[in-house]
Design a protein that fits this description.
The complex is a heterodimer.
Chain A: E1 2-13, E2 16-27, E3 31-35, H1 42-49, E4 57-62, E5 65-66, H2 72-76, E6 79-82, H3 94-100, H4 114-126, H5 142-155, E7 160-164, H6 172-189, E8 192-196, H7 200-206, E9 209-214, E10 217-222, H8 224-227, H9 230-237, E11 241-245, E12 252-256, H10 259-264
Parallel strand pairs in A: 3-8, 3-9, 6-7, 7-8
Antiparallel strand pairs in A: 1-2, 1-4, 4-5, 9-10, 11-12
Chain B: H1 7-32, E1 33-34, E2 37-38, H2 40-49, H3 55-89, H4 97-100, H5 102-115, H6 120-143, H7 151-175, H8 184-187, H9 197-216, H10 218-224, H11 228-233, H12 238-260, H13 266-278, H14 282-306, H15 315-335
Antiparallel strand pairs in B: 1-2
Helix pairs in contact in B: 1-3, 1-14, 3-9, 3-12, 3-13, 3-14, 5-6, 5-7, 5-12, 6-7, 6-12, 9-12, 10-14, 13-14, 14-15
The chains are: A alpha/beta, B mainly alpha.
Chain lengths: 265, 336
């Protein structure tokens, strides 16, 4: 089944076109990563899938249904979103924040039932933040806060989870931890993971398929080995790169080349 | 987890019962004390044991003091709730109907209504509502960048709108030598002394649906605190909810202003105090603001009518004495 199907999508801020002639599909249960240089429209594409931004043109189907037919609540039961920067001054405890993920499932007065509490607890166990349950958000580190918002997204029980550069401000250990978490989410819960990433190496290691954007258009879509070649990347990013097979497995590894070395050779 | 599944509902009920008892206590206090002296003991005998009391006192209690206390409760409840809602929607801890100029706009509308010779209800109330909506739109237009309502520009435009409204009110007062404006000077800073049961009943009918609607949206307000985009992706129809809440709150505030004048800073004091005690869950804060705001206003009114040796002072003087320093304190805290 197709999780997200996009056809001839077009988006612009005012007169400035951001996305043009975008057509692709994301399979259910896929780890799908959108990469590309700054200003290539990655985040706009993610926000369009999320219906935060309305496209000027084109069709989009979420799980086989046109996006216009969903209400906010019914869409939130299928799609969850983890933003790039999570609010730190949000005046609630970890558990309260995670429980808020139940919002699209709650009844008229927005009161959680026992079942909702259970789901929240499971989500906190899954992301290893159960021990932080009664802590306030402002008392946590960036990485912990990130996991709280991922737990909140899981608590929403979506079929698709969207993440906007979740590793951008994290240290190495938290980066790999977040990515591992997403992989487990995909494998154990069958959730489709769609992520915007700055980090091509992480994308190559974890992505089932990558979508490379440049100036609002699709440059290449395919398995990491087919997208991450030095010809394609040098063309898209406009800098010299080295691409080798990774010593860890069947995916490529990208190395940046400093100018000093280019001049010497 | 340590929390019981029904924990939240039980907390809401317990809190509401406790605050209702407190409100009842100050209500009894409010109808017992007045310019004709304190009658706590004889009233106690009358209310609890059904003993006969002086018919003059009886009439004072039922026809003057009770409507006055009830109007104070309604004013405190609506203005506190108004502050809570504005603080959540605008994500600004300093937002409050009076500070934003919403109350001032209602007052201009109400005065126009009085000068046009309209009846208090619905004429003056509708004019006040129109005035509040006009100021709301004005401050939103002034302070809105593309999508973000900036914290400081919102307050600044509120201050300016307020200053403008005050001068409009003063203009009308200076231009008219009319008995209709006899009470306006007092009314400008809040006055419950003219309350009667009929007004109180009309206000009750207007306010209760607003209270219910806001309580119904209280969990949604929690999510709005996360920001527009997050709220959207969690299933909140941000536009519809925001417009509904702003309209409901403006309606509530304008109804109150039409009857009891300008009482400032209540919407700042009560929500902040309750947040300190209860945390930030609006499902608790909404009922707490209604009951706690009512209690606070009855106490303020008691001070206003008993502090001066002769006559009384506008209740807005008391609320400003308490609220304005808190505003400055919060402003400093927000800057840090």
């Amino acid at each position: 089944m197709i999780a997200v199907h996009i056809e001839n999508l077009q988006c612009s801020y005012g007169k400035e076109p951001i996305l043009q002639e975008i057509s692709f599909s994301i399979e259910t249960g896929e780890f799908f990563i959108i990469i590309g240089p700054n200003g290539s429209g990655k985040t706009t594409l993610l926000k369009t899938i999320n219906s935060i931004i309305k496209p000027q043109q084109g069709n989009m189907e979420i799980l086989g249904t046109p996006f216009q037919t969903y209400t906010r609540k019914s869409l939130a039961r299928l799609l969850a979103f983890v933003p790039q920067e999570v609010p730190s001054d949000f005046p609630f405890t970890v558990k309260d924040v995670v429980l808020m993920g139940r919002y699209p499932h709650l009844g008229v007065f927005g009161l959680e039932k026992e079942q909702d509490q259970e789901i929240a607890k499971e989500a906190m166990e899954f992301t290893d933040i159960l021990h932080l349950a009664t802590r306030r958000l402002s008392q946590l580190s960036g990485g912990e806060r990130q996991r709280v918002f991922i737990a909140r997204a899981i608590c929403q029980e979506p079929q698709i989870i969207l993440l906007d550069e979740p590793t951008a401000s994290l240290d190495l250990a938290h980066q790999v931890r977040t990515m591992d978490l997403m992989e487990r989410l995909k494998r154990e819960k069958g959730i489709t993971v769609v992520m915007v990433s700055h980090d091509i190496n992480l994308a190559a290691m974890y992505g089932d398929r990558l979508l490379l954007l440049k100036e609002g258009k699709i440059v290449k879509l395919g398995k990491p080995a087919n997208v991450i070649t030095f010809e394609i990347l040098e063309e898209a990013y406009g800098c010299v790169l080295m691409v080798n097979p990774s010593p860890l497995g069947d995916f490529p590894q990208v190395t940046l080349v400093p100018q000093r070395i280019l001049l010497n050779s | 987890m340590s929390r019981q599944p029904r924990f939240l509902i039980r907390r809401i009920v317990t809190l509401s019962v406790l605050l209702s008892l407190l409100l009842l206590a100050v209500t009894v206090l409010g109808i017992s004390i007045g310019s004709s002296g304190s009658n706590l003991y004889s009233l106690y005998q009358y209310l609890i044991h059904g003993e006969e009391i002086d018919p003059v006192l009886k009439s004072i209690v039922w026809r003057i003091r009770l409507p006055r206390v009830l109007l104070a409760i309604q004013t405190g409840a609506a203005l506190s709730l108004g502050g809570l809602v504005f603080q959540a929607i605008l994500r600004n801890p300093l937002a409050e109907p009076y500070i934003l100029g919403i109350s001032g706009g209602s007052a201009v509308g109400a005065i126009l209504g009085i000068l046009m010779g309209l009846a208090y209800f619905p004429g003056v109330s509708l004019m006040a509502f129109a005035g509040s909506i006009a100021t709301l739109l004005t401050i939103l237009l002034i302070s809105m960048g593309q999508t973000i309502v900036k914290k400081d520009s919102l307050l600044l435009s509120g201050v300016m709108v307020n200053a403008f409204c005050s001068s409009v009110i003063m203009f009308f007062i200076s231009m008219t030598h009319d008995t209709r404006l006899h009470n306006i000077l007092f009314w400008i800073m809040g006055d419950f002394s003219l309350a009667n049961m009929q007004q109180v009943l009309v206000l009750f009918i207007l306010l209760v649906p607003c209270f219910l609607l806001i309580f119904w949206l209280s969990h949604t307000m929690n999510l709005l605190l996360m920001g527009k985009e997050m709220a959207l992706t969690m299933g909140v129809n941000v536009k519809v909810i925001t417009v509904t809440l702003l309209l409901t709150t403006s309606f509530m505030v304008s109804a109150i202003v039409a009857y009891s004048g300008l009482v400032g800073f209540v919407g700042l004091v009560i929500p902040h105090l309750l947040r300190l005690l209860l945390g930030s869950d609006h499902r608790l804060l909404v009922p707490a603001c209604i009951l706690g705001g009512g209690t606070y206003m009855v106490l303020c009114d008691l001070l206003a009518r008993n502090l001066p040796e002769q006559g009384e002072m506008p209740v807005g003087v008391i609320t400003a004495f308490i609220g304005a320093p808190l505003f400055i304190f919060l402003l400093r805290k927000a800057r840090q």
